[in-house]
Specification:
- Helix content is 25%, strand content 31%.
- It is an alpha+beta fold.
- The chain folds into two domains: 4-240, Rossmann fold (3-Layer(aba) Sandwich), CATH 3.40.50; 247-359, Nucleic acid-binding proteins (OB fold (Dihydrolipoamide Acetyltransferase, E2P), Beta Barrel), CATH 2.40.50.140.
- Helix 6 (176-193) links the parallel strand 7 and strand 8 (196-201).
- The radius of gyration is 25 Å and the shape is elongated.
Length: 368
């Protein structure tokens, strides 16, 4: 295992970042020993480039990658003892799964000691991957599904005893059902294996399911690093608040100009998630001291397979989405007027986008 530090990393490619040539400038990131750190961000933000810099497959223009206090500037990928799983899994097409898993040993001079080591590592790898991996071992990659290729690629990494495991969107070729299945299996495997892992993805549900920590990237920099719960409850910026959305049935955080909610919020942006907003049918919010605003119900949509109704509203010329639970009462009809009171919300600086402060706490999600 290893503690990884990225310090002031910069990397340029022609034509990136609006012609300035930089995809990464001054990036800092700490990757703790023995944990799974998910790097989450939109396409083109530099996630895969960061992974390649850590692996030594790319050289930074400036900055350092440090393993356990040692600068890796002159270390080759092999010397870094890294296991890497690519999006396409990069298996040897003419090898069986067993040969792919043991490929590290096939490129070294054969000795009785090496053979014993290979067999012991194969046994340990098969144990970690589960007993049902054995039926794949005599097949070549062309006869494997995407999920099976992913398991073989992970197995190949494990036999090398890496101190760092790097995974670059390994579920990108799987359908939704298989992604969920293999996401659970991979998390179980990583917990059992206990190796320092960096997992790159643009899928928020993958990050939430797999990561001990989540690093949100934006335009070649790290916006925030923390647990999913802390980022959700205390987002550092508008971008972090908007990007992390664990509820697939509701859009991300609602944002409204501060002055539209309360005069004292001028120059600020109010951000509130669905569970922080109370809908007052008929516009009656008398006696409620929380900031409030009038809204028009554009649509009241029952949520498929879940209890509650998703309200699509218009307030201060913005779209606002609120999920009403059954215990909240009868949902309002479309085209009716309601009042929204903000029981829990964040205030962001309108210029920098950074969070100024948070008020209230979110209501706990209903049990379904």
């Amino acid at each position: 295992m290893a503690h990884i530090e990225c310090r002031k990393l910069a990397k340029s490619f022609p034509g990136t970042r609006s012609g300035r040539g930089f995809c990464m400038e001054g990036l800092d990131l700490d990757i703790p020993d023995g944990k799974v750190t998910c790097v989450l961000g939109p396409s083109g933000c530099g996630k895969s480039t960061l992974l390649r810099l850590i692996a030594g497959l790319e050289e930074p223009d400036s900055g350092k990658v440090i393993f356990d206090g040692m600068d890796m500037s002159l270390a080759t990928p092999e010397e870094r003892r890294i296991g890497m799983v690519f999006q396409d899994y990069a298996l040897y097409p003419n090898f069986t799964s067993r040969q792919n898993v043991l490929s590290y040993f096939m490129f070294h001079k054969k000795t009785p000691e090496l053979d014993r080591e290979a067999q012991e590592k194969y046994r340990r790898t098969a144990e970690l991957l589960g007993v049902d991996i054995e039926y794949l071992m005599d097949r070549k990659p062309t006869h494997l599904s995407s999920g099976e290729k992913q398991r073989v690629a992970v197995g190949r990494c494990i036999t090398r005893d890496p101190r760092l495991l790097l995974l670059d969107e390994p579920f990108s070729n799987l359908d939704s059902k298989l992604r969920t299945k293999y996401r659970i299996q991979l998390r179980t495997l990583l917990v059992r294996y206990g190796v320092t892992t960096v997992f790159v993805t643009h899928d928020q549900r993958e990050a939430l399911a797999l990561g001990d920590l989540i690093a949100i990237m934006r335009d070649g920099g790290v916006e925030q690093v923390d647990t999913a719960e802390r980022i959700y409850d205390e987002p550092r910026s508008l971008f972090a608040a908007d990007f992390l959305n664990p509820d697939p049935d509701a859009p991300t955080m609602n944002f409204l100009p501060g002055e539209a909610v309360a005069p004292e919020f001028g120059g600020l942006v109010v951000g509130a998630r669905s569970e922080g907003i109370v809908v007052h049918v008929g516009g009656d919010a008398e006696g409620n001291r929380a900031p409030s605003i009038e809204a028009l119900v554009a649509e009241a949509r029952p949520m498929a397979l879940r209890s509650g109704t998703l309200l699509c509203l218009r307030a201060a010329d913005r779209d606002v989405y609120v999920r009403m639970r059954p215990e909240d009462g009868e949902p309002p009809a479309a085209a009716s007027r309601v009042r929204l009171s903000f029981e829990a919300y964040h205030l962001f600086d309108g210029n920098t986008g950074l969070r100024v402060r948070s008020v209230g706490r979110y209501r706990p999600a209903s049990k379904e």
